[in-house]
Amino acid sequence: MTNPDPFDINCNSCFGQCHPLFRYLTDNERLTISLNSNCQAYKRGSVIYREGNKMRGFYCVQSGIIKIYKTGSDGKKQIIRFAEPGDLIGYRSVISNEPACTTSEVIELSEVCFIPAELLFDLIKQNGDFAVGLMKLVCIELGEANSYITDIAQKSVKERLSEVLINLYHEFGEDKQGILKISLTREELSNIVGTATESIIRLLSELKNEGMIELNGRKIKILDKPGLKHSANM
Amino acid sequence: MTNPDPFDINCNSCFGQCHPLFRYLTDNERLTISLNSNCQAYKRGSVIYREGNKMRGFYCVQSGIIKIYKTGSDGKKQIIRFAEPGDLIGYRSVISNEPACTTSEVIELSEVCFIPAELLFDLIKQNGDFAVGLMKLVCIELGEANSYITDIAQKSVKERLSEVLINLYHEFGEDKQGILKISLTREELSNIVGTATESIIRLLSELKNEGMIELNGRKIKILDKPGLKHSANM
DNA sequence: CGGTACGTTGAGTCATATCAACCATAGTGG
DNA sequence: CCACTATGGTTGATATGACTCAACGTACCG
Questions:
Q1: Residues A89 and A202 in one domain
Q2: Digit-coded pLDDT (tens) for A99-151
Q3: Does residue A219 reach within 7 angstroms of strand D, measured from its CB?
Q4: pLDDT tens sequence across B142-174
Q5: What's this model's pTM, rounded to 2 decimal places?
Q6: Please, are residues B59 and B121 in contact by the beta-carbon 8 Å criterion?
Q7: B145: which chain A residues are within 8 Å (Cβ-Cβ)?
Q8: Are residues B38 and B50 in the same domain?
Q9: What is the nearest CA distance from B212 to chain A, expressed in angstroms?
Q10: Do B99 and B174 lie in a common domain?
Q11: Looking at chain A, which residue has its C-alpha nearest residue B95?
Q12: Nearest-CA neighbor of A211 among A222, A200, A199, A198?
């Protein structure tokens, strides 16, 4: 339950790393944002915003990895997605004007830039290309959510785990030794797949025995991508 | 596999019944739309657009009920949501510029108005209030999808069925005799809950025996709303 | 009158959750 | 420096929710 305090950082070069969306902005708009935004670093375990919070703005991720999850009625976490450098988080609740429907918690040391809500609305209204771009972003996320619903409802736990591993590979890639760059606990994996931790452990070692993956603690190496995809029924 | 042809209808008064979103439009914008849109009626079983289709525009529902579903890798349908009078369908794929990720099929005789994609983009760029309103719509849908993911991943089939019944009540209401206005086959219910048809049948009669609901073929009457909510773990 | 779609019930099986015990590791405070 | 505690990982045994398969009933429709 530790929740380390964030700390201010210097972020002159914010927009360099930011979402391609910001390319649509005029110099003037960019200036307004950099005058009104506020960058902070958060350590692993920090919560950037919590389910139920009223959102006064949204965030742009400069570095690190963040998990976005919902808490079910029995307290179990369900990871909805991850945010990486360039991603925006929290904008959904800002726009829909609802309390945050998810919690976002840092997995790897992250630098995050806060941008107040009013600026977001101004940009949407002033800059049509930005509006279309942002809307495209939400629509893609919605499409992914729809697929996720179908998968969870219809696939077996093993199929889902295989699919999750493939997705993590596509999203985060692997290092020189072929190890998945994102490192998750078994529990976090179970919170993505939507199952018990023990099931994840058993199925991971099944996949290992089938030669699909190699395991070394939290380090996961995918050995047989086509095999895994097949196992995921993709 | 029948797919009755749609037929043209007169739709002078389209915008009267349309989504509140359209209130943001100027008279001029409204005129442009009514000159370029095209209303048709579709019978039960008709498919308005099919998963994988390239979308040349989106639709505004004037009357009727439409189910929006995805087909899983084994061919099983997963109903994502329903569309009612005033709802927009198909806009997600238009904006994200992807092929349709769902199929929309008519459940009850529907009048539907087609609006070409270019007009949508023009409106977003020209009319800031419209842009914000539409974005709000997508964001709310995304929030609902996130809840759905969590529910399907964590709740039992019976909890989900109870919740679906409550949701159908809120969305469609009941007639004078207290019977849910939307009438679904057991299979359609199973395609919402994400389970086997037989399970739905058994659980419906369990809920009946517990005094939660009354059954008469497809007619479902909710007797004990608080009880159902409790059974849904809401 | 036969066909087709829908609904129901029973029996058997299997995937997955749950419960419990145990080990490894690392951080903490006295 | 050591005992203590928390966290994460693993394994086995057991229970059960939910699916599958199969048979049959029912109703409507051309």
A1: no
A2: 999 999 999 999 999 999 999 999 999 999 999 999 999 999 999 999 999 99
A3: no
A4: 999 999 999 999 999 999 999 999 999 999 999
A5: 0.92
A6: no
A7: 142, 145-146, 148-149
A8: yes
A9: 21
A10: no
A11: A136
A12: A222
